[in-house]
Write a structure and sequence with these properties.
Elements: H1 8-29, H2 37-45, H3 53-60, H4 64-76, E1 80-85, E2 88-96, H5 98-122, H6 124-135
Antiparallel strand pairs: 1-2
Helix pairs in contact: 1-5, 2-3, 3-4, 5-6
Protein name: HTH marR-type domain-containing protein
GO molecular function: DNA-binding transcription factor activity
Pfam family, one: MarR_2
């Protein structure tokens, strides 16, 4: 039977989903307000002093409307707030509330534990090699430069 060589983007997507599902399950078990995977992604790309919705959308690779919906879900959950942008009277910054900062710290610890579990399963050397490959500069995608 021939082996199926899955494309690397599919493997990376599966790996991301493994971390997301572990993080979401752990946060839910701890009583944290339920969040979706897109909301998790938004939370991860948010700067501590605050970030505009447009910049969040760019970082997430989604439309402004999609980012806006994620923001409002997290505001309703008490994890984010909107504040005036001191650099622009027309814009507002999105930032974590005190509860959002607590949940963010908890999420960072959960991700560290998930990485340790992965290292126990596939080996520390494999995890370190994966991290090194993903942190290496890849340059612009072909056809975009």
């Amino acid at each position: 039977m021939p082996s199926i060589h899955r494309p690397l983007p599919h493997l990376l997507s599966d790996a991301r989903r493994w971390f997301e599902e572990g993080l979401l399950a752990t946060l839910e078990a701890s009583g944290t307000a339920p969040v979706s995977a897109p909301q998790l992604q938004l939370f991860a790309v948010l700067d501590d002093p605050g970030t505009t919705v447009s910049e969040l959308a760019r970082r997430m690779g989604v439309t402004r409307q999609t980012a806006h919906q994620a923001v409002h879900g997290l505001i309703a959950a008490g994890l984010l707030e909107q504040v005036p942008d001191p650099a622009s009277a027309r814009q507002r910054l999105i930032r974590r509330t005190p509860e959002g900062r607590r949940v963010h710290r908890e999420a960072v610890l959960v991700l560290e534990r998930l990485e340790a579990q992965l290292a126990a399963r596939i080996g520390r050397e494999a995890v370190d090699a994966l991290r090194a490959a993903l942190e290496a500069p890849w340059g612009e995608p072909p056809g975009t430069a």
